[in-house]
Amino acid sequence: MIRIIALLILVIPGFCAALGIKLMRDMMFGILQPPFIYLWTQFLTGFLLFAGGLFFVGGFIFYRDRKRNKVQKRFKRGA
Q1: N or C: more exposed end of the chain, with fewer CB within 10 A?
Q2: Which parts pass through the membrane (predicted)?
């Protein structure tokens, strides 16, 4: 049960990042999606979704690797 919850915690930000890439791509081709009025707001929202998802997943992986001592010496706590 715990592994399923952990998987969901990683899948949801991954889905948001993928949606952000789609919104940015649609803006580059001039396709306006329904909840947005302007292309620049669509791009900004897509960028924020992508960056948020990327930072969350990256931070999770970094935290896990730090806990298992698989990072360089400069990234270890107390070093």
Answers
A1: N
A2: 36-63
